[in-house]
């Protein structure tokens, strides 16, 4: 008999575990002093790693040592208080501890039976979150719908499109495949590329995607949408899905769901609302206007607690009004996955709500975050971020060298130096190279525009002030003030 | 200015973190005493949870208390030494600690620039693993290929099919969509349902899937494959992908890749090898025969270290021979995701290798597992599991009441009581209700068959012996011996 390998004993796990907990706490304590954007050259990290793995096991302390010396310099620090690029990927103590619990439990939630609590906690916490966001009961398990945690908003868009195709074809796509020439999907010119990716993945091809023009505030123009759909229907095409965005990636523009919805209803088109970044702001009653129309018209809705609601990636909360359409699109059952309870249809088997079969116990982290912050704590985080962004915007507006490039209804500020693009590129490059802050960019009305996205867990007043000071003084240098 | 919420301080995180580390260690110490298959009724877990989330934050200790009282009874314990269902989802101390590090770092690996070390460690460790498995350089970044961590083998199958469609259409699917009437995909009648799911997702529909008959050992019959492809080509269809399985979900049958491969080569068909469970066994040179033909013929190959190689879910190692085909199929770039280094094509941006955009730092756990076990430790784990399974099979073979239903080349044993299905259903139900062991079932040659899958981290000699004793004595009771 071959003996078992030497596993790490639980006593060793306790010892190394305490060291790792301290490593993480130390990291959070010192992350503000590290360069937020990694300054390594391509290939530099790999060059520090040995060509071959070790023949015999090494202690975990060796892993931690190499983490410090080789990997940390190669990290861009998303939890740094000066991280303002893209959108935040905010984590928190409760979320991280829950991830540790999830990893330690090591259960699979593909079916109810494979770990009932994994499924039922997810149903429950997503029902909680629906209530916190002001979504109606039809998106919960009390109604005909329900929520599921996807890894990302991209995956939510993909499964929404699959459900839409399933509904539009009355299930025929399952066997017959997709009639690429027949279906069209719609989104604004400013929407996330994930819909194009989903159109490619589902076999529609990007030619099936109609990009609808935007209004002055970069939100989708509902009149243009109506025209596009009407033209397509006249041409014999089927408008299968509209994706409206609540908080676009580029500028956080908010599409008018209350005006897009009636058009979808008129043509029988599935309405998916991608609220990846902004949706969680609706935990604050005064910001709930951003999803006006969702309750009445959306067929599916997704927002990412892993972006701005303190829940570690990956945690996209994806809701559908009619769970039968989603399950119909994705359910394939083989004998080795049959169980008595599933057959009785008394339980949810989340394998049929997503692309992969297996799934981690991700509900634990959302549950821990909601409980440890409480509703008031979540609201305080959102309100704090919004207030910081509004103040930053007033500084930009008050400085004649700069201009605001889009409204900032939430915590993203889009701005630039007036005039040519080149000084703006230099400004971005210079401040990012400083290691103190990290911003990304976008194009607004064909102009190179800087984005300052607030919402990181560690970001405070002083960090936003320091960011403005650095941007302003760097601009002075560039402009030769 | 709205103040920031009260976040868990790093001092509190250290304190609660130690408690969580101890909770996990205690859980591992006691898991063998818990019923492996949860005994809750549908809805029971939800009934124990409050209808609404708390208004104000609660201490993390409250989360742990409810975890104990409400959730743990609702868990099916995948890390229990008596868990023999499906395939193992084996985790380990190093993997769990690395998950904690990954959560604490909270970086996004969607592009090289968003955290270079996240990307480069993944490239490096997957190159290491390719070497450990005996895969040739063409599947590494030293060649034209490379590896990527997907969440699951289902996602690996999906991206392989997308790459195959991209290649077969010379990129036209990107814009034009998929010509569902034209393409066919092939797999054995015993293969995983994930290919059907992928065919539906990609718009081909299940009608495009040809199920190829199997030989006596449940492996794909290459002659039948050749006939099916030849017929389809004659009919003007394009054989776009064959999925061969190394270790089927049902019985761990191993398709003859060395005979399937030449057929794919002849017809220009993409060959994906799904080695989700079994592939990692190739870390042992004496088991490397299972992937005979992969080096010469596979276009893509995937195996799950999260199943049998001690790495916590999710960690599917997915390799392609030609990374350009995969990136061509999945790359969609918008301005807000542009970076100078990406444009220079000197780095890997893993967003273009997968369905979602965002990604966790999953390479850390595979790195930690390989380093802490060393090559010899990984081999010892595989050899131990195989030895335990072989011994169990000898007990079954020696008992006239039972019959083995398939070869057991690795660590899965398929067996049943001779005769009717009903006593076998009762046997399964009775032993699973005992709480001591958990097995799942499949159908082999239309007969209800029990599956005992070995490979869990905690499973030892005595647990397999106890499983046999329970099965044997339960059978005696059922058969009235």
Automatic annotation (TrEMBL), chains A, B:
Asked whether the UniProt record includes Metal-binding among its keywords, one would answer no
* UniProt keywords, alphabetically: Aminotransferase, Decarboxylase, Lyase, Pyridoxal phosphate, Transferase
Cofactor(s) required for function per UniProt: pyridoxal 5'-phosphate
Give the stretches traversing the membrane: none
Give GO terms: molecular function aspect only.
transaminase activity
Q: Which residues form a coiled coil?
A: none
For whether the record's keyword set contains Disulfide bond, the answer is no
Family listed: Belongs to the group II decarboxylase family.
Q: What protein name does the entry list?
A: Aminotransferase class V-fold PLP-dependent enzyme
Its source organism is Nocardia suismassiliense
